């Protein structure tokens, strides 16, 4: 994670709300595991969710508010 506002724990929590499971592995990295039966559409969904989760975290930080796990403040 290059941006200190996005921690692995915050990202994993936001992804879990979108049914994408990931695991923090350090203070700056997240582990994703993909099963061989996952489709290209599933990967695209996960990538979209990552993008949305990052935007949500940064938006909450910009508002200087503590956002809940469902993306609202």
Write a structural description:
This protein has 73 residues and is mostly helical. The chain has one domain. Helix content is 44%, strand content 5%. The chain has a two-stranded antiparallel ribbon. Helix 1 packs across helix 2.
In short:
By secondary structure, this protein is mostly helical. The protein has two helices and two strands; from the N terminus they run αββα.
Features:
single chain, 73 residues, mainly alpha, two-stranded antiparallel sheet, 2 helices, 44% helix, globular
Largest sheet: 2 strands, antiparallel
Q: Strands of the largest sheet, in order across it?
A: 1-2
The figure for the number of domains is 1
User: What structural category do the secondary elements indicate?
Assistant: mainly alpha
State the helix count.
2
GO biological process, one term: L-threonine catabolic process
GO molecular function, one term: L-allo-threonine aldolase activity
Organism: Aegilops tauschii subsp. strangulata
Protein name: Aromatic amino acid beta-eliminating lyase/threonine aldolase domain-containing protein
Per-chain topology:
Blueprint: H1 8-16, E1 23-24, E2 30-31, H2 40-62
Antiparallel strand pairs: 1-2
Helix pairs in contact: 1-2
């Amino acid at each position: 994670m290059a941006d200190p506002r996005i921690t692995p724990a915050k990202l994993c929590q936001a992804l879990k709300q979108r049914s994408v499971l990931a695991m923090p592995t350090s203070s700056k990295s997240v582990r994703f595991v993909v099963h061989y039966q996952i489709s290209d559409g599933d990967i695209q969904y996960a990538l979209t969710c990552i993008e949305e989760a990052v935007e949500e975290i940064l938006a909450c930080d910009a508002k200087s508010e503590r956002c809940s796990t469902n993306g609202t403040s």
